[in-house]
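Section 5.1 Outputs to date
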Amino acid sequence: MTPFTRFLAFEAVGWAVVGALLVWLVEIEVFPLWLGCVVFVAWVAKDFALYPMTRKAYEHGPTHGSADLLGSDVQVETTLSPDGYVTAGHERWRAQLAPGCEGPLQPGETARVCALDGITLIVEPRSAG
């Protein structure tokens, strides 16, 4: 299933609920028919406009528990000085530089997960170790 098909499948439920609510509001004469149609079209258009920003969430890919990431490489997403965010596959994780590591790490650099603190990844520069 493509990311776009998954998007349509997930959003169709919301569109049906909003459509049913708008039909009810038109039936009890809270909204005129034209306004109900405009609101529905705007609601659907909003979802399509936001799709490029949410597309990664609909992509199929491996998901990780934090323990599965120990020893793996992650991509720095925001400057780690000493904390920030990294990506592992399609997932974004909070990360912190390991004690004693020289930083900061810049976006685009690769880091290695060396420890965990709850769901925060403790990382070091890839060249370390």
